Amino acid sequence: VRHFHLSPAVQKLTQFTLSDIGEGIREVTIREWFVKVGDNVEQFDDICLVESDKASVTITSRYDGIIKNLYYAIGDTALVGKPLVDIDTLEGEHDDPKKDDTKAAHKEAEIPSKLKTEPPAINADQIFNKKLATPAVRRIAMEYNVPLTDVPGTGKDGRVMKEDILNFLNQLSNQPKKLPTDEKQAVASSGEKVVPVSGIKKVMVKTMTESSKIPTFGFYDEVNVTKLVELRNDIKDFAKSKGITITYLPFFIKAMSKCIELYPEVNSALDESNENIIIKYYHNIGIAVDTPKGLVVPNIKNVQDLSISQINRELNILMDNGRNGKLMPSDMSKGTISISNIGAIGGTYAVPLINPPEVCILAIGKIRSVLQLNEENKVVNSHVCYLSWTADHRIIDGATMARFSNMFKQYIENPHLLILDL
After folding, report:
1. Residue 266 and residue 320 in one domain
2. Disulfide engineering: 357 pairs with which of 126, 227, 269, 343, CB 3.0-4.6 Å?
């Protein structure tokens, strides 16, 4: 009678908790799961995508093991410090050979080497998920509900590659996508769709509700940007040769920072509880970014210390990260004043709402070509845009806002004044 002994790995159920992701965030919304119950995971594999009121963050595993339980469904609110998933971790402790009886050891020696080295049977799906597809590929498969076992792998040892998933999806592209029966009935019967307010939408509701309680006033003006247009046209080809795309917005951002130096109360906050005004000498200028998930306002830190070229670079990074859902909570924190470039979409005027605890915001309209009379009463073609300011009337009075806007207008109409500081 042949006998062989296999030492089972010690199983340990570990609760994986949602760690503090910073910036005082206490809860997040589960946006996407990259794993399901039964999946094998390794350290640093992606577990899920969560969204707070400030940013989206990918949570990664701290353990090797098997997913045993998911505590939340997509769309649920998860609390920091509470369990996120249960993971069966493998401690891998083997029996001490000295504890085996002599007879068993003798019989084990009679086993052919082929049998002795043969591993215990493991579920084929587990082998496939753990060894033959990367986390990125598994994520794509889960997004499109494609079982990895259905996809022929062309990589080494049958590994499923990204191209394999895409080819598989292309083969299915001619098949019409069917809605579940209950979903079709819901659409047909009610003609409405209930969308939970969460993530970015949730913070927008909260912030704008707070903003509506602030006593504000608006100030509007027209600015001639002809010289700014000419300056950008002069440098854009050179910038392009360096791989840089320069827009008008960095000039507006720098001009705002220069004006704050003379009117610091525009870059302040109100401490209502202590009846204090907090003047901020760091210029963290927020830029409204339209993303697929909603409007976010990341800010460029310490603009007072940056050149226009540096501002342009930081701006491009923030906007790219915003559109791709890669903004971090720190990108949205500690803003001091904001700009909304509605002209990029096509707007001319606006009534922008203040982003608390800030006390001022500017909306920039689109640049238009118009006919005007110059100083010599000759008709010339000019480029103009409109400035729409909203200010907190508890901190900023109308005269201060008018002077601030006039100074801002001077910088924009004479952009070489900004260049002098670079």
Report:
1. yes
2. 269
Residue 85 to residue 72: CA distance in whole angstroms = 8
How many domains are contained in the chain?
3
Which tokens in the block code for residue 111? 């086993």
Place of tokens 């598989």: 168
- CA distance linking residue 322 with residue 331, whole number of Å: 10
Element (H, E) at 28: strand 27-33
| CATH code for the domain of 57 | 2.40.50.100
The domain of 155 spans: 135-166
Within its chain, how far is the Cα of 277 from the centroid?
32
Q: Assess whether 139 and 81 both reside in one domain.
A: no
My answer on whether 223 and 158 are in the same domain is: no
Classified as helix, coil or strand, 131 is helix
Question: Chain-wide mean pLDDT for the chain?
Answer: 81
Q: What phi and psi, each to the nearest 5 degrees, are found at residue 222?
A: -105, 140
Regarding beta strands 337-340 and 285-287, do their DSSP bridges make them parallel or antiparallel, or are they unpaired? parallel
Active site residue 20: no
Percentage of the chain modeled with pLDDT above 90: 43
Closest CA to 323 of 56, 137, 76, 140: 56
Structure tokens at 93: 């402790």
Phi, psi of 112 (to 5 degrees): -60, 150
| Residues 33, 25: Cα–Cα separation, whole Å | 20
The pLDDT tens digits of the residues spanning 240-270 come to 888 888 899 999 999 999 999 999 999 999 9
CA angle 50, 53, 56 (to 5 degrees): 35
- In this structure, what CATH number is given to the domain that contains residue 142? 4.10.320.10
Is 393 designated active site?
A: yes
Contacts of 416 (CB under 8 A, 6+ apart): 227, 231
Of 126-140, 391-405, 406-420, the range with the highest mean pLDDT is 391-405
Which member of 64, 100, 290, 393 is catalytic?
A: 393
CA–CA distance, 26 with 187 (Å, rounded to integer) = 35
**Which one has a higher pLDDT value, 310 or 2?**
310
Catalytic residue among 221, 305, 397, 421: 397
Type of residue at 319: M
The pLDDT value recorded for residue 68 is 93
pLDDT value of position 181: 52
